[in-house]
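Bug #77: duplicate submission created two jobs. Keeping one. Sequence:
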Amino acid sequence: MTPPRSAFGAPPQGGDAGGPAEPVPRRLLGVRGWTGVLLAVVFLAGVVPVLNLFVPEESALHLSGFYVSLLGKILCYAICALAIDLIWGYTGILSLGHGLFFALGGYGMGMYLMRQIGTDGQYKSEMPDFMVFLNWKEFPWHWAWSDSFIGQMILVVLVPGLLAFVFGYFAFRSRIKGVYFSIITQALTFAAMLLFFRNETGFGGNNGFTDFKRILDIPIATPDMRVVLCVLSGLVLIGFYLMSRAIVQSKYGRVLQAIRDAETRVMFTGYDPVAYKLSIWTLSAVMCAVAGALYVPQVGIINPGEMSPAASIEMAIWAAVGGRATLIGPIVGAFFVNGAKSWFTVAFPEYWLFFLGALFIAVTLFLPNGIIGLLKKKGERE
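Kept job's structure:
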């Protein structure tokens, strides 16, 4: 007699004949995985600060401030790539609009940093320079919490999360999927970019926010703060990675993968795909918003350009190049692509976009599983 099969096509594990299936416990990470996490923590929290702050600049081992800032930026990008993998690699939802959530998180942090400037601005006013220039007499209503670090950090999570929830609710309830969903997310991002370009919205218009001075009343343009922000970005990435591993290995994660592979069959087994898709979509948006909040104090500027469709498309490219549905792959892809971008835009600035397009085409045709898939295949052959 053929054994009964679960909703996901596999025989139930454990239990007596005819009894309820017992879930098989799965380790979050193996020995090699935890070793890798430990080495990453040691490198970020130990090696990077030492090489930058304590090794003399004339030493070959010195890590310059430029590379610390570059590392911090790429770590933020890697968080976005990881967020894309959760919805695209594991749930089958391709978003071309996550740059919006990244930028909203950045603007949330930027509003607080603008208030931290105080009277050190060009016009010696408590209000940001662009508001004084536009002859504004008081702060807009959405700047009410801008002088509170905790308040703004709540908004960094709440605003993008709420927007993602509302948008996702109507989109998923309407069963919009595939290329149509991707186009709608791109249109949403483009519309938001046009809105933020307008001066009357209170977000600095075309110039956005810049010329930051302090964070938590601590000078922001110092080597110590640069290292702290870089290390914090790395630790947040590691935390999100472990959280994502726990998600994809849980029953919830298996349902997400079933939705990716056969959403109609999942509905027939009694699950509600809308709730699962909406929850992971919202979580993914919040992850990007947190990355944006960490990104802004490290680069010193946030403007509507971060909402451009090209920025969101690049996030998808990072995930595709590294390898979807692997978690570690998108992180590798973010480092590979942005490392190449840093070199190309200096050595051959006019060819960068051609290289990026060629890379995406090559990965699509010859490396459908990305860099990680190639490494796994090579390891199996050996």
